[in-house]
Design brief:
- The chain is an all-alpha fold and 93 residues long.
- It has one domain.
- Helices cover 47% and strands 0% of the residues.
- It has 5 helices and no strands.
- It is elongated.
- 3% of the residues are buried.
Length: 93
């Protein structure tokens, strides 16, 4: 990353390369799909990426497994929870 890109990020401006990741004119579902694709293409497992993008209501869950709570605590400052309409149903077999 060049010096100008680092400086732009520190001022709150977003470099052009990052702006094009999520289609600005797309629906909430399209934006979720764009973000999921970015995370998966960057090496994250699809389940891991979905747990980052659409976390369960974990903060008030007293019976949550400590490892799962740690996962959500680690990712909370990195990702803003998805607040759009429910994107889909997801389960493992």
């Amino acid at each position: 990353m060049g010096q100008s890109q680092r400086d732009a990020g520190s001022r709150g401006d977003v470099p052009k390369e990052v702006k094009s990741v999520v289609w600005e004119g797309g629906s909430d579902s399209a934006s979720l799909d764009n973000a999921l694709e970015l995370l998966v293409r960057s090496g994250r497992d699809p389940v891991h990426a979905l747990m980052m993008l659409v976390p369960e209501a974990w903060e008030g869950a007293g019976d949550l497994d400590p490892a799962l709570r740690s996962f959500y605590e680690f990712h909370a400052p990195l990702m803003e929870p998805w607040t759009g309409p429910p994107p889909s149903l997801f389960r493992t077999a």
